[in-house]
Amino acid sequence: MFFFCSLQGSVGYQRHRITLAPENTGNLFGTLPEKDDGRILQRSKRGWMWNQFFLLEEYTGNDNQYVGKLHSNMDRGDGNVKYILTGDGVGSLFLIDENSGDIHATKRLDREERAIYTLHAKVVDKRTNETLEPDTEFNIKIHDINDNEPKFFKEIYFASVPEMSDVGTSVIQVTATDADDQTYGNSAKLVYSILQGQPYFSVDSDNGTIRTALPNMDRETKENYQVVIQAKDMAGQMGGLSGTTTVSITLSDENDSPPRFANHTFRLTTLESAEVGAVIGRIKANDADMGRNAEMHYSIVDREGQDMFTIITDQNTQEGLIRVKKPLDFERKRTYSFKVEVTNTYLDPRFIYSPNPPFKDDAMVRITVADVDEPPVFSRNPYIIEVHEDTAAGSLVGVVSAKDPDADNNPVKYSIDRHTDLERLFNIDSVNGTITTLKALDREMSKWHNISVVATEISNPRQTTRVPVFIRVLDVNDNAPEFAMYYETFVCENVKSGQLIQTISAVDTDEPLVGHKFVFSISSSNPNFTIVDNEDNTARILTRRGGFSRREMNTYLLPVVISDNDYPIQSSTSTLTVNVCACDSRGNMQSCNTEALLSAGLSTGALVAILLCVIILLMIVVLFAALRRQQRKKEPLIISKEDVRDNVVSYNDEGGGEEDTQAFDIGTLRNPEVMEANKLRRDIIPEMLFPFRRTSPIKDNADVRDFIHGRLHENDTDPTAPPYDSLATYAYEGSGSLAESLSSLESGATEGDQEYDYLSNWGPPFKKLADMYIEKDIERET
């Protein structure tokens, strides 16, 4: 049987259990073995058995901390017994003397890290390694000491409470925790207290709830408070550890302050020309509240101010904006005085009936209207005038009137904006505003004329006013009625007498007041057709006889006279064209063409013959045109294959041939050194003369010659050079150049003095050119 012995003073008050166990077993839990029949066996030996050690945390000694001793009654003291320890921390935290059974802790233990360690012990024979005591479990429990101070979850808490709150209103609850053992002593029993923030706030010592301690705390007086809360363990006793936190408490705004005008009289000045809706001034009331509680509403109380002005609130600045409601007139009224009242938009019922003054205020507003030089004002705007369309040019149309509204009453002059009267149909008297016609008006062309009349102060032409004048042209019966549309009328050859062939109607561009009434008639002597008026501005055309024939007459022209009933009566004659057509038995038109009668006499063979003749004639014409075109072809410009030129320039201009000696001298183009004088065309008079530059008297320039020979040698030896000759045309050099002009237009007058033998020395690229000119030179000499 195991004995667990501990010398720690802290275990003196622990209750020890005494159990009995047989010698060959190590029963540590005090249970008595039973036989199969349920009878309890009697033990012959007794012993002590503890299954738990207690060890204080945070040991500060220099040696290993003694935990306790294990001892078995199988140990006879002869050194043959070996104690073996296994479990949590064995080897690193706990060591056991295998001979004596003493257990030591090698490190300082912290209960907050781990409170209980579970270990297993057994006893074996050193010689035979036979188990003398079975594996027994026991615990090492770490006793707590007050080594941890309380800690709050946050270093700084933020909270708010409405201003003017009642005493005891909860603000926030702050909680601290202590890592010490909650079940052992008072190491973790906390008490809360307030170190800073009195007398405004208090704290519940048990749960850390902060509450208001003073009534009527006003945000407008003080808004922010810093409260320091302490939590102390050991139930607040002396020697306990403590921790603190800061709580920032803000008084939230309530609508407990009414708006107030700092100045109860406002003076504003505005021009009489201020437009309706224009802002002419701002007034401001102050409200100590903030946000929604500081929003204000302004209103005009007096009737005089309500008629002429309005006031609204600027939502950004909470100012009252005074705007013009009706046009101002300095000459009619120069000053206005009225009262403006301000109230909060949102009211709190708790403070409306408080002892404080009512939640509104008022102020007087005085507005002075300043005079400005105003433009003329018309008596009406706009003008609507009516005039008949038969009014002669120069007739009166109407009169407009304007005057200067200022006290000076300066005279005005009138004019018509010609951009609104491009046809110049009207004129206006600049003095009295009388509008007259310049041309006759036609309602059928335009029923309305919209012009603008401008009134201008004579003393200040910049002051002008426009007014629209709408002139309505009244109708006069000056147009005759006519057919409403073009009618395609036909009559069948087999028609009977009295049969309807067409219903006609008329239109009139005039607009009589009583509406249109047209009368239709035709000549009573017409033997073919008659007309019946339907009395609804339409008429029916009927046949007077039957038996029409296209061979006799295929078209009839029927004059119809149409008259209106207005004054003066207008009438016109419209012609109705009636075609004679072939119809079936039901009266449906089949054919109205007279050509059909002619085609009936031609056979199919005749038509084919005519078509062939036409085709033959077309072929002859095409053939003749092709021959003429072939004859007009010209001979080619180059016939000989040997006459090859790299560049051919063709001008669409025919010269005069060899006999043309009045044009340019060809010698000028050949010898640039024999030009003696300026050569001009001799066949025409030049429009402009340009002075020619005289050539340099230097005949031979060694630098230019060497340069040309050098370039010539480079091209002769260059395998990538093109095989053909190239001709470069240059304009003339400046007058001071030693290279002289390179233009052939300033060459000598004759080519007889020019020698071309040097061309044969220029190499293969110039062989063709040398052959051409040397042969010509030889021919000229022979």
TrEMBL record:
Which residue numbers delimit the Cadherin domain? 72-152, 153-261, 262-378, 379-483, 483-597
Q: Which segments cross the bilayer?
A: 596-627
Task: Please provide an example of a Pfam family that matches this protein in its UniProt record.
Answer: CADH_Y-type_LIR
Keyword field:
Calcium, Cell adhesion, Cell membrane, Cleavage on pair of basic residues, Glycoprotein, Membrane, Metal-binding, Repeat, Signal, Transmembrane, Transmembrane helix
GO cellular component terms given for this protein = adherens junction; catenin complex
- Among the record's GO biological process terms, what is one? cell-cell adhesion mediated by cadherin
Membrane topology value: Single-pass type I membrane protein
| Any GO MF annotation of the entry | cadherin binding
List the subcellular locations: Cell membrane
Superkingdom of the organism of origin: Eukaryota
Function description: Cadherins are calcium-dependent cell adhesion proteins. They preferentially interact with themselves in a homophilic manner in connecting cells; cadherins may thus contribute to the sorting of heterogeneous cell types.
- Name this polypeptide is given: Cadherin-10
Q: Which gene encodes it?
A: CDH10
